[in-house]
UniProtKB/TrEMBL annotation, chain A:
Main location: membrane
Species: Sinimarinibacterium thermocellulolyticum
Domain of life according to the entry: Bacteria
Annotated membrane topology: Multi-pass membrane protein
Homology family: Belongs to the CPA3 antiporters (TC 2.A.63) subunit B family.
Segments crossing the lipid bilayer: 6-25, 32-50, 97-117, 154-172, 184-207, 213-231, 243-268, 274-299
Domain named MrpA C-terminal/MbhD: residues: 14-80
This protein's name: Hydrogenase subunit MbhD domain-containing protein
Taxonomic lineage: Bacteria, Pseudomonadati, Pseudomonadota, Gammaproteobacteria, Nevskiales
From TrEMBL, chain B:
Entry protein name: Monovalent cation/H(+) antiporter subunit G
InterPro entries tied to this protein: PhaG_MnhG_YufB
Keywords: Membrane, Transmembrane, Transmembrane helix
Record-annotated membrane-spanning stretches: 12-33, 67-89
Xref: Pfam families: PhaG_MnhG_YufB
Spans annotated as Disordered: 96-117
Length: 308, 117
């Protein structure tokens, strides 16, 4: 995997460090957000250069796209009139210095642990590829996420679920007045939303043997939802169907895991003959849930009641 | 010159021409005085620049399916960038009245335009 280092990689690294610094240090919040989005896009390029297109897809869609939209939306909510709110005091306070030191320490530890890896250690790629035949899928990334390390992914879906529950508890903001419906946005929505749905389904299916999967598909679906919300403001109150959709992924994942344990295979260990179908089932449920959760995080917890 | 060589050379020419549009677009964003002219420069890079790059890459494609996918990428970017351009101009119009006057400070404006993409 030792790809040679190109000039492009060096430029990427320098730009990433510089953009990260600018996003933290610029006094203008709008600028900082834009720099954060560009940072995310370049980071996904870096993942491509490292040969990890799965991570690159997720980073571009979630890190740059959805998180960027969320930050821009937050800025808009802070209010154009509160111009003073859009700049922030900069300076080295003890708290900031502490955080900076902790980050530097963590970064140093990470670099050291990579440098200290024994030369002879080949990593887990070999065993992962060896077992691929039993995993039910032919994409080693999906095999790792959904089969070998299903626990981690189950908990990740759980974290997302907790995030939206927290939002529903906290956010009782009255809704913004809906922006004037824009014909161009409506047109964009009519063309892009069906495409997003189709491509999300494609990513889910193709995840079994190529880069893709539940998270990437969900990010696309959620992006379609965000576009919908921008063109024709949506409300996503925590009604029974929405709650069911939000819980579905975690519930199916957990249910399959428990069922496996009940049939004697052990929690989340799939029999090779069934693994492919079970993974597809889990991923489908997870994709739907994650998409609704991400859209919920964007639209906010404005329930019908609180909005009135 | 064999067919493959000819295709390779043509591909390079197209990609090079596309790069020129991107270069001009970037220079335009940095150098042009107001928001509308900057948007104009940016969208040229998206439309023609990416179109030429896609054309160049299509010449190197292995099969028709790949050509169609490249074409789809171009069409989607075309569509998204025109709408984004319109939206940026629209929001500048709403915020400042006259978009031609909507020129932020010497440093801030470049970021505005980049966000528009």
């Amino acid at each position: 995997m030792a790809a040679e280092v190109h000039a492009l990689d060096l430029v990427l690294v320098v730009l990433l460090v510089w953009l990260g610094w600018r996003a933290l240090a610029s006094a203008d919040l709008f600028k900082a957000v834009v720099q954060f989005i560009v940072f995310g896009l370049l980071l996904s390029l870096a993942w491509v250069r490292l040969g990890a297109p799965d991570v690159a897809l997720a980073e571009a869609a979630i890190g740059a796209g959805l998180a960027g939209a969320l930050l821009l939306d937050t800025l808009a909510r802070l209010g154009r009139d509160g111009a003073a709110d859009e700049t922030r005091p900069l300076g080295l306070t003890p708290a900031r210095a502490g955080i900076a030191l902790a980050c530097l320490g963590l970064a140093g530890l990470l670099v050291a642990s990579v440098l200290l890896l024994p030369e002879s250690w080949r990593g887990l790629t070999g065993p992962a590829l060896q077992q691929l035949g039993n995993s039910g899928v032919s994409n080693p990334v999906t095999a790792t996420l959904l089969n070998y390390r299903g626990w981690d992914t189950l908990l990740e879906v759980g974290v997302l679920l907790l995030a939206v529950l927290g939002l529903w508890i906290l956010d009782v903001e009255p809704p913004l007045p809906p922006p004037a419906p824009d014909p161009m946005l409506g047109l964009l929505l009519r063309i892009l939303l069906p495409l997003a749905v189709v491509v999300a389904g494609y990513l889910l299916w193709v995840g079994a043997h190529a880069p893709g999967g539940a998270f990437q598909g969900a990010a696309l679906l959620a992006a379609g939802g965000v576009l919908w919300h921008l063109a024709r403001p949506l409300s996503l109150p925590a009604t029974a169907p929405v709650r069911a959709a939000v819980v579905l992924g975690f519930a199916v994942f957990l249910g399959v895991g428990v069922a496996m344990a009940a049939f004697g295979g052990g929690f989340l260990s799939f029999p090779p003959a069934w693994a492919g179908a079970l993974i597809l089932l889990i991923e489908t449920a997870a994709m739907l849930s994650i998409a609704v959760i991400m859209l919920g995080l964007f639209v906010g917890g404005r329930t019908g009641k609180a909005g009135e | 010159m064999s067919g493959d060589e000819l295709r390779g050379a043509l591909s390079l020419v197209f990609i090079g021409a596309g790069m020129l549009f991107f270069l001009a677009g970037s220079v335009g964003v940095l150098r042009l005085p107001d928001l509308l002219s900057r948007l104009h420069a940016l969208t040229k890079a998206d439309n023609l620049g990416l179109g030429l790059v896609v054309l160049g890459l299509a010449l190197q494609a292995d099969d028709t399916f790949e050509v169609l996918r490249l074409l789809l990428v171009w069409l989607l970017v075309l569509f998204a960038s025109s709408v984004a351009c319109y939206l940026v101009a629209q929001s500048a119009l709403r915020a400042h009245g006259d978009p031609a006057a909507a020129t932020a400070g010497p440093e801030g404006s470049g970021e505005d335009a980049r966000d528009g993409r």
